[in-house]
Structures are given as C-alpha cells and as structure tokens.
Amino acid sequence: MNRKLETIGAVIVGAGIGAGIALVFAPKTGKQTRRDLRRSATRTLDRLEDLQDDVRKYMTNWVEGASAAVASGIECGKESAREGGDRVIHVLENARKFMDEGKERVQRYVQSVGK
After folding, report:
1. Please, where are the H alpha helices in 1-115?
2. 3-state DSSP assignment of residue 25
3. Residue 45 and residue 37: Cα distance in Å, rounded?
C-alpha cells in the first residue's frame, strides 16, 4: 500500500514538473497552453482523489483491524477472569467440604469420648 502511495505521489510531482517545463518550452499558443494546463490539472485532481480514496480505505481497514484486535483482547480478558473466578469458587467449595467433613469428625470424636 505504501509503495502505491509513493508511486501516485511521484506521478503527481512529475505532472507538476512536466507542466512547468511545458510552459517554458512549448511552442503552443496561450489558448492551447491553458487548455493543456486545465487538462493536466484535471488529471492531477483525479489522481489526488484516487490517492485520497486509497488512503481512506487503508485507514478504514487499519482501524477496523485494530478495533477487532482490541475487542478480541477484551473478550479474552473477560473469559480469563471468568475461568479464574470459577477456579477460585471450585477451590473454596472443596475447602468448605473439607471443613464440614472435619467438623463432623470432630463432633463424632467428641460424642464418642463423652460416652
């Protein structure tokens, strides 16, 4: 894409230089020269519009790609947070079961000793 932009820029600069040289060395009448200049200016403007469209498309694609990458990163972060939260809850539930089982064992022991 950058190469294409450089080429179009070089063409535009070349058109300007060519127009200037043509003014100095052209054996045409003023009317013919003005007509040629209008045509050259029109072609140059068309090329500039093409360049503008190319830059706009390139930037649009870049922004869309960057937006998609950011959205994907955010979604991955959310998913990781959910998975991490699920793991913490699972560990806490296992700890609670272990504590409940231990409490029951202690209660059974206390009851058996008290008899």
Report:
1. 2-25, 30-114
2. helix
3. 12
Q: Which of 14, 17, 21, 15 is nearest to 39 (CA)?
A: 15
HSE, CB side, 13 Å, CA atoms: give it for residue 14: 7
Structure tokens given for 22: 């043509």
Helices 2-25 and 30-114: crossing angle in degrees, nearest 10, is 170
Distance CA 98, CA 101 (A): 5
The pTM for the full model equals 0.44
Neighbours of 19 (CB within 10 A): 17
Across the range 20-44, mean pLDDT stands at 80
